[in-house]
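Hi R.,

Here's the chain you asked about this morning:
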Amino acid sequence: MSSSKHIILGVSASIALHRALDIGSELRKGGHKVSVLMSPNAKQLISPLAFQAMTLSKVYHQMWETVSDLDHDHIRLAQDADLMVLAPATAGTIGKIANGIADNILTTTAMTFDGPRLFAPAMNWRMWANEAVQANTQLLQNRAWELISPADGDLACGETGPGRLAEVSFILDRIEAAWSRPKKA
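And the predicted structure, written out as tokens:
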């Protein structure tokens, strides 16, 4: 990957969450600083410590963590980072961000970040096809979020269809391509 960047990796509670560990690890190996932000439900699937071990960085998973320096993590992270990627992005997280619901560290930071933003949905094909999810996806795209479309294939529920998280290598390629897009003024 190109010169060192600061990347926010937002993760939400999809069964594909384990692949976000690989994304974070590969970004770190590429020399990038990775700040992981977890939705509250993501912690039910993978411990924040797993992401900390893979990225060698603090993992943010609580909105109101006690801090001695009164730092506002969601604002500072948004100001300091070069790119934000949501992978996996669930229907709930997509809907919250698309509709301005900032009720956790991930969605609040997404509201304040103004650089290149990508999202990689992962969910059951019926959820992905749902009219509300498609409308929220379009809203994000209209607001300069770049969609990394889900792949078609076997899903965790035993069904087959579009909804799989895109391959890690494809997501990494899309992150690399996004470097050329400057932050919005």
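The chain has eight helices and eight strands.

Let me know if you need anything else.
M.
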